[in-house]
Structure formats: structure tokens, C-alpha cells
Amino acid sequence: MKKLLIVDDEVKIRELIAKYALFEGYETDEADGGAMAVEKCKNNKYDLVIMDIMMDKTDGFTASEQIREFSDVPIIMLTARGEEYDRIKGFKVGADDYVVKPFSPKELMLRVAAVISRSEKTPAKSEEEIFEAEGLKIDFPGRMVYVNGERINLSPKEYELLFYMVRNRNIALYREQFIKDIWGYDFYGEDRTLDTHIKLLRRNLGEYSKFIVTIRGVGYRFEVK
């Protein structure tokens, strides 16, 4: 049975999510704040964390960032606002998806299933181990990326996106392909989720963001000579 950690400082919201999660066959655990969530993730194994952003003391952003220091457990963030700032910050600290309050518990469960399904898929093995273009170096087995000799840290989804594009370089990749191959067929997010991750990835790549070319009306291409 898959186990979820539900993190929210509102008891009623935790109870609502737990009710629907149990109905869908998940085991649940709860934390009433970010600090407790971090400790629980250190001492327990979860298949996914549902993390509220707005909490007293340790908020969801801080807690997710701390969890990412020792765990790759999938995280879905709950936000009271649908602003781009929240999405960007959430993805930057390693969130896999986000849901805006007030939310549909049924939709949340669909997103939970989609994220867990995607996290369980084994990435296709590539014969290529090291990719280099100008000052950009990618170590596939080591899951490391270097820009002008300095290692950069990416979120789990940013790694997936970059590796996917590099392995399919110089090929026009449709938006639907990204959603299918990176998030899975059952991804219930919006197109702008992909765009937000691409924006963050470009920012981290600095001058080598030039390799990621936007194809208007189609998607993106990682273009190198």
C-alpha cells in the first residue's frame, strides 16, 4: 500500500485529504507543520508528500527545500494562490506538481496517482554517459550538470527535462511529448507547468540556455551543432 504524508496546519483539510486518500487505497500519515514534516520524512518512507505552502513557523517552501537535501520523495504543493511566483518557487525547491486552493479532492487524488506512477518509472538507459557542448557538461550516470566547470543544482524535474532534451537533441519535441514522457499520460497539470520548468532550467543553464530553442506553436528543441 502506498503511503502519503499530508502536511497542513488546518486539521479539517488534513482530515478531508486523508478521507479521500483512504478511499483510494492509500495509507496516510499527517504533520501539522513544515518542521514536523521534515522530521517525519527523515524517519519514515513515504511514496508522496502533499505539502501546504502557507503554514506558521516553517512554511511549505522551506520544508520542501529541507526534504530535498536528503530525499527525492515526490511532493505536491497546496497553494492558496495560483500566481506564477508560487509555481516558480515551488518547482525551484523541488515540487513535482501543485494544486490551488480551494481544490477538488478527486482531482488531487488523480494528481497523486499520476505523480506516483511517473516516479516509479525507470528512466530509459542511454548508451551515452557524458555529453559536452562548449562549457556545458552533463554526466548522465552521475546525474550531474556542469556550467563552465561549476556544478549546478537542478530540481528533479529539471534534470528529467534536460536529460530528455539532450538525448533527443536537434529534434523538434511537441508539448504533448513532454507531457507524455516526462509527466506521463495521466498528468493533470496545465501547459504552463512545462513552460515554468523550462524557464527555471534556462535560468540555471545561464549562457547555455541558448541551446533550448522555443518552436512557436509546437514545443521546444535542444539545438547543438
* Low-pLDDT runs: none
Strand order in the sheet with the most strands:
2-1-3-4-5
Strand content of the residues, in percent? 15-25%
Structural class: alpha/beta
Any overview of this molecule?
- With 225 residues, the protein is an alpha/beta fold.
- It has helices spanning 11-23, 34-43, 60-67, 84-92, 105-120, 156-167, 175-183, 191-205; strands spanning 3-7, 27-31, 48-52, 75-79, 97-100, 130-133, 136-139, 144-147, 150-152, 173-174, 212-215, 219-222.
- The strands form three sheets. It has a five-stranded parallel sheet with strand order 2-1-3-4-5, with helices on both faces. It has a four-stranded antiparallel sheet with strand order 6-7-8-9, with no helix packed on it. Strands 10-12-11 form a three-stranded antiparallel sheet.
- A hairpin with a 2-residue loop joins strand 6 (130-133) and strand 7.
- The model has no long low-confidence stretch (mean pLDDT 87).
